[in-house]
Amino acid sequence: MIDADLVVRGIGELVTPEGKTALAGSRAGDVRLIEDAAVAVKDGAIVFVGSEEELDATLDPEASAEMLDAAGGTVTPGFVDAHTHLPFAGWRESEFDERLRGATYSEIAARGGGILSTVARTRDTSKTELIRLVRERLDAMLALGTTTVEAKSGYGLDHDTELKQLEALAEAATGHPAELVPTFLGAHTVPAERRDDREGYVREVVDSMLPSVVEAKLAEYADVFVDRHAFRPDEARTVLEAAREAGLGVRVHADQLADDGGAALAADLGAASADHLEWASAEGLDAMARAGVCGVLLPAATFFLRSERKPPGRALIEAGVPAVVATDFNPGTCPSESMSAALWFACLEAGLNVDEALTAATLNAAASLGRADRTGSLEVGKRADLVVHDVPNRYHLVYRFGLPRIRAVVAGGAIVRNDGAEAI
Fold it and tell me: In the chain, which residues fall in CATH 2.30.40.10?
């Protein structure tokens, strides 16, 4: 018999990938389906996944468990958003209008807009206010079914503001039901005041910012934006090799606007992920597959930018690269906290099927963050992170696009949303 402090019953369909590693190639959409299912939880961990009939024969009748009725809905693992930019101030809605009128992302960035405009606002914002903004965004993500969130700095581009962003992440995440994974992105772009001293700025990232971040234990990963408006592959290598030597994992913004060699660099460094990849070459993807680097698709950002190249979802699957789906939540190119939206675009724009997209947004995303041993799937022993969707089966998650239909969210074994009422 098993004891439980939370039982989820009335599940019409439970769908989950399984395992502790990312799924790729022909296994990219492997999921377990259980109809008339139930999940039992004890002390924040899953202790049972199976049919209601099996649960009734297994559950200790004296267990004083809280009951959550899925009302015939579909249950999935909690979403894992593996690429966001949470700690920023200000929005960039005017740039959105400029793009609608014909301006390109590169043109806006070249005249000092884009990332640099957010840098100016973030530098002028107090840490207290950044903490408030981050927590507000985590709350919104959690209510939308995201239970694990990777979040990057990168809107400081100087020593003190980069640390301020990472400290805001740490303080906002303390006690929050969602789990946060911090990433240092001091090499997001070269700040305006250092444009004539690129080499000096790279050295500042490596010799000043990085040691402070590591000493204060403010990040698990380091990331670099490889792009002609940001950093060359050789500059990125300098930063990421230093980060790896300091004990951080590495990630790469790769080949978003052109084939800049980011995928190949990520493979050579054995990075945890290469993200974006719209312009990645077949050779770059093959190298990633051989190196076991996850490919993070950001299809909502691609759609929002109206990019000429679609996210390479099918190319990742065919190359054997573990595919991940994330939001890229940020003020300029994807001001959306919704992983449901990322799923819609992963299928409708990037070419994944529903099961591949769901796996990419849960288990594979967790694997890219080094957390597949404890989240990303509904299996005994893993953290109890799950979403009850108010739809009869998983296909409706994408088929009925435009509105997330989320009935309840459980994070770490606690009900944080139920019937639309947040309990954060």
Answer: 6-79+377-422
299, amino acid identity: P
Integer Cα distance of 267 and 255 in angstroms = 13
Each residue of 69-123: pLDDT tens digit?
999 999 999 999 999 999 999 999 999 999 899 888 778 877 778 899 999 999 9
DSSP output for 314-377: HHHHHHTPPEEE---BBTTTB----HHHHHHHHHHTT---HHHHHHHTTHHHHHHTT-TTTSSS
| Residue 328 scores a pLDDT above 80 | yes
For the purposes of burial, counting CB atoms within 10 Å of the CB of 18, is it exposed (0-12), middle (13-18) or buried (19 or more)? middle
Name the nearest CA neighbour of 224 among 245, 210, 208, 211: 210
Model confidence, pTM: 0.97
- 352 pLDDT more than 90: yes
Cβ proximity of 261 and 226 under 8 Å? yes
Q: Is the dihedral of CA 302, 153, 209, 270 positive or negative?
A: negative
Residue 147, φ and ψ in degrees, nearest 5:
-110, -15
Provide the token pair at 269: 């460094």
Model pLDDT, residue 111: 77
Euclidean distance between CA atoms 45 and 129, whole angstroms: 34
Instruction: Choose which CATH entry (2.30.40.10, 2.40.30.110, 2.30.30.50, 1.25.40.10) describes domain 6-79+377-422.
Output: 2.30.40.10
Kind of pairing between the strands at 146-152 and 6-16: unpaired
Can you identify the CATH homologous superfamily of domain 80-368? Answer: Metal-dependent hydrolases (3.20.20.140)
Contact (Cβ atoms closer than 8 angstroms) between residue 263 and residue 289: no
CB hemisphere CA count around 324 (13 angstroms):
31
Residue 5 structure tokens? 């402090």
> Residue 395 and residue 183: Cα distance in Å, rounded?
33
| Per-residue 3-state assignment (H helix, E strand, C coil) for 198-256 | HHHHHHHHHHHHHHHHHHCCCCCEEEEEECCCCECHHHHHHHHHHHHHCCCEEEEEECC
What are the tokens at 195?
């444009």
Structure token digits, residue 404:
């997330």
3-state secondary structure of 291: helix
* Residue 421 burial class via C-beta count within 10 angstroms: exposed 0-12, middle 13-18, buried 19 and up: exposed
Residues of the chain with CATH 3.20.20.140: 80-368
346 in Cβ contact with 325 (< 8 Å):
yes
Tokens of 128: 């207290």
> Which amino acid, residue 215?
E
